[in-house]
């Protein structure tokens, strides 16, 4: 498991694409969807 | 799910094939299925539609106290899917996929590929778990965030990289906001995490700060604030909260544990007469045991008692059991209470499941829909069984592994086939007859919707009012552009009538008897029983008798 190299976004995407990070990627997606949806609903 | 580790043997390969086939099937179902879950139609997801119309705070459109009082971090995830009209079960399915990966990685590292693939099939063999993983309820994310927490902790112990502590904190923050019991488990796991980091105070402090921030962002603080404003209590109306808690302390906990254990016994699919009779005899035995032990009716939610007790081993998402693998898992969980094997991974998993089960028995009132609260503990119990079979090598254990795998594969394959709305025909129905399938768990609301459309087409310009009560499945009506219905509470309807805003010819359905003299019955609409809550008749009214101005 080598550390990902490259810029911030590239590093993030590479990290998210690694199979061993799948649970983290899914959690990040759910967290992003939740936060953005709740913000939308709170600001209505 | 592959790597440099040794390739799986025949057992692992068989389980691997079955797992991928099952995952593909459930993935396809999650992609196309509409929102069929009645709770989601009543409050979990319907509140998103209501909040889209009027926001969260000071919104007079909410139709159920549950829309206001329950945490909504996971429910909110469904908003884009609800707007799109497709893939509403995908977030739950992603939770299943993420859980499977975490389980696979940890099991393979400890016991090898055969054990890892068998563990995954054992998870897929728990009907209630896979039904929840293809639904829109908020129980599977508790399992998923728990799995992410355990996985991140496992990786932290192996790699010592601080990023894994970040993921532990995020998992707990998310867990705290998905449902009220999730907040309880998150508090326990958070304390455990910080205790584990006590040797590195700097890191522990950063972890505590991260956890606090995660709870602030994902703990659904806003619903507690709104609940405090509306009900004067952040947890919800005190009377309702009291009813949802186990009212009888240790006595209630003992009775609940006994019911959960009896409910874990698999006697075949309850839809079959022979199995239903066997199930009835289990219920009778349990009832007699509770009466003899002086625990009759202890620990119940208000409207239930031992007289109404039933155990379902069927395809009902709301109350399904955990199948034959669940029976074995429960045996392993109970064994952890009488055997002391703290060095064995299997024992630790089973002991954690037992602790969680006891906590649930003590805190939550019993009713048959609580089964979904048990998915974490059954999952841990199933994994404990798999680990126990791989902890030592012997010819007998190798035979048992094949036996467990065969049972798990058969159960996992049967889970969709035994369900009234999860089989292959349901995938076809999701595409061809989507609207009927959407209301398959509550057919009455589907028939009402269809009839209201016809009646409204006969009187263009009329308004459809749905006077909803706490348990009204409002989502199918709210989301229908052809009805453009006004959904409101009984006081809202009374206010509307008093303000003179109703017109002759407007259509009304009501789940709460408003006793309005303006209502003239048009017809009764009935639907057959499918689920335990499905058999009802409801009237459609027209507004009449308002004098012309």
What attributes does this structure have?
heterodimer; A: 44 residues; mainly alpha; 2 helices; B: 549 residues; 3 domains; 5-stranded mixed sheet; globular
Architecture blueprint of SSEs:
The complex is a heterodimer of chains A (about 45) and B (about 550).
Chain A: H1 8-17, H2 22-42
Chain B: H1 10-32, H2 38-44, H3 46-54, H4 65-69, H5 79-84, H6 90-111, H7 113-124, H8 127-132, H9 140-159, H10 162-178, H11 180-196, H12 201-218, H13 221-231, H14 238-244, H15 249-263, H16 273-292, H17 323-338, H18 345-363, H19 375-390, H20 395-417, H21 424-432, H22 434-438, H23 443-458, E1 464-467, H24 475-478, E2 486-488, H25 490-498, E3 507-510, E4 519-527, E5 536-543
Helix pairs in contact in B: 1-6, 1-7, 1-20, 6-7, 6-9, 7-19, 7-20, 9-10, 9-11, 10-11, 10-12, 15-16, 15-18, 17-18, 17-19, 18-19
Which pair of chains has the greatest number of interface residues, and how are they split between the two chains?
A: A-B, 22 and 43 residues
Sheet with the most strands: spatial strand order of chain B: 2-1-3-5-4
User: What is the number of strand segments of chain B?
Assistant: 5
Instruction: Count structural domains of chain B.
Output: 3
Largest sheet of chain A: none
Please give the radius of gyration of chain A in angstroms.
14 Å
Instruction: Report mean pLDDT of chain A, rounded to a whole number.
Output: 86
Helix content of chain B: 55-70%
Average of pLDDT of chain B: 93
Beta-strand residue percentage of chain B: 5-15%
Question: H/E element string of chain B?
Answer: HHHHHHHHHHHHHHHHHHHHHHHEHEHEEE
Oligomer: heterodimer
Which structural class should the secondary elements of chain B be placed in?
Answer: mainly alpha
Cα end-to-end separation of chain B: 73 Å
Structural domain count of chain A: 1
Helix content of chain A: over 70%
């Amino acid at each position: 498991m080598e550390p990902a190299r490259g810029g911030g976004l590239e590093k993030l995407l590479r990290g998210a694409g690694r199979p061993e990070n799948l649970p983290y990627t899914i959690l990040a997606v759910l967290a992003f969807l939740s936060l953005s949806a709740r913000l939308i609903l709170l600001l209505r | 799910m592959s790597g440099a580790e040794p390739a799986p043997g025949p057992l692992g390969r068989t389980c691997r094939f079955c797992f991928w086939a099952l995952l593909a099937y459930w993935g396809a179902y999650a992609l196309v299925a509409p929102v069929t879950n009645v709770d989601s139609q009543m409050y979990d997801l319907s509140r998103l539609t209501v909040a889209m119309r009027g926001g969260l705070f000071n919104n007079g459109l909410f139709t159920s106290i549950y829309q206001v009082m329950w945490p909504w971090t996971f429910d909110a995830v469904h908003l884009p899917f609800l707007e799109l009209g497709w893939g509403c079960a995908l977030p739950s399915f992603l939770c299943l996929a993420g859980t499977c990966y975490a389980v696979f990685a940890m099991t393979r590292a400890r016991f090898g590929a055969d054990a890892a693939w068998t563990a995954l099939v054992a998870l897929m063999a728990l009907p209630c778990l896979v039904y929840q993983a293809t639904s829109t309820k908020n129980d599977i994310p508790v399992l998923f965030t728990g799995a992410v927490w355990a996985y991140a902790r496992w990786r932290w112990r192996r790699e010592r990289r601080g990023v894994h502590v970040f993921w532990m904190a995020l998992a707990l923050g998310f867990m705290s906001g998905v449902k009220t019991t999730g907040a309880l488990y998150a508090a326990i796991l958070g304390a455990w995490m910080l205790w584990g980091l006590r040797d590195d105070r700097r890191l522990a402090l950063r972890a505590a700060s991260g956890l606090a921030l995660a709870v602030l962002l994902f703990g659904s603080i806003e619903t507690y604030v709104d609940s405090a404003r509306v009900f004067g209590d952040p947890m919800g109306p005190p009377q309702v909260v009291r009813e949802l808690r186990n009212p009888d302390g240790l006595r209630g906990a003992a009775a609940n544990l006994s019911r959960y254990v009896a409910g874990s016994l698999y006697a075949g699919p309850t839809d079959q007469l022979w199995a239903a009779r066997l199930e009835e005899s289990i219920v009778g035995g349990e009832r007699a045991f509770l009466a003899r032990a002086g625990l009759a009716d202890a620990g119940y939610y208000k409207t239930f008692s031992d007289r109404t007790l039933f155990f379902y081993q069927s395809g009902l998402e709301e109350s399904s059991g955990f199948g034959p693998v669940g029976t074995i898992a429960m045996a392993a969980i109970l064994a952890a209470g009488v055997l002391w094997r703290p060095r064995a991974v299997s024992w630790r998993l089973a002991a954690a499941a037992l602790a969680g089960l006891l906590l649930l028995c003590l805190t939550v009132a019993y009713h048959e829909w609580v089964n979904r609260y048990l998915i974490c503990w059954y999952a841990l119990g199933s994994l404990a069984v798999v680990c126990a079979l791989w902890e030592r090598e012997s010819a007998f254990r190798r035979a048992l592994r094949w036996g467990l795998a065969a049972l798990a594969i058969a159960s996992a394959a049967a889970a969709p086939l035994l369900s009234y709305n999860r089989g292959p025909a349901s995938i076809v129905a999701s595409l061809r007859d989507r609207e009927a399938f959407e209301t398959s768990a509550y057919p009455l609301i589907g028939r009402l919707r269809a009839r209201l459309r016809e009646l409204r087409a006969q009187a263009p310009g009329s308004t459809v009012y749905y006077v909803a009560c706490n348990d009204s499945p409002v989502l199918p009506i709210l989301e229908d552009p052809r009805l453009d219905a006004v959904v409101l509470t009984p006081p809202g309807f009374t206010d509307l009538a008093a303000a003179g805003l109703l017109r002759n010819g407007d259509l009304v359905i009501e789940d709460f008897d408003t006793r309005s003299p303006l209502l003239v019955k048009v017809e009764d609409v009935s639907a057959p029983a499918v689920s335990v809550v499905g058999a009802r008749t409801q009237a459609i009214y027209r507004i009449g008798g308002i004098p012309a101005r």
